[in-house]
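Attaching the record inline, Q. Sequence:
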Amino acid sequence: MADLKWTDYVAVGTSAIGAITGIVGAILGSIGYRKANSLKALDLRLELRKAVSDLGSLSDELPNLIDSANRSRKSIAAATGNFRSGMMEKWNKDIEADKIRLQQLSVQIPAVGEAFVSHSHTELESVLVEVHSFHTVLKQLQSKYRDAIQADDETLIQIRADQRARMTQG
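Structure, as predicted:
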C-alpha cells in the first residue's frame, strides 16, 4: 500500500468538508425555498384580500351612484324638455343594463372576509386577476356615472344662467 502524504490527508479532509457543506447547503436551500413560497402565498393572500375589500366597497357604492346619476339626468331632461326623447330611452336602457350587470358581478365577487387559505399559488393568482378584471369593470361604471353627474351639473349651471339672462331682459 502506498504511503499517504500530508497532501492526501488535506485532500480527503477538504473533500469531506465539501461534501458536508454541499449537503447542508442543499438542506438550507430547500428550507429557504419553502419559506419563500410560503411568504409569496402570504403576500398574494394579503394583496387579494385588499383587492376584494376595495372591490366590495366599490360594488356597494355603485347602486347609489347609479340612482343619483339617474335622478340627475331625469331632472335635466325634464328641465330641457327632453324627458320623453330617444336619448332618455337609451339612458333608461343603459341604466337597466348596468344594474343587471352590477348584480351579476356582485354574485361573482369573492366574499370580503374570505381568507383564501386553501388556495394554491396558481389559484390565488387566478382569483387576483379575476378580481382585477371585476375592479376594472366597476371603475368604468363608476367613471361613466360620475361623468354623467358632472355633465348634468354643467348643464344645470347653463340652464340657470339662461334663466337669469331672460329675467334681466324681460
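The chain has three helices and no strands. Residues 42-169 form one domain.

More tomorrow.
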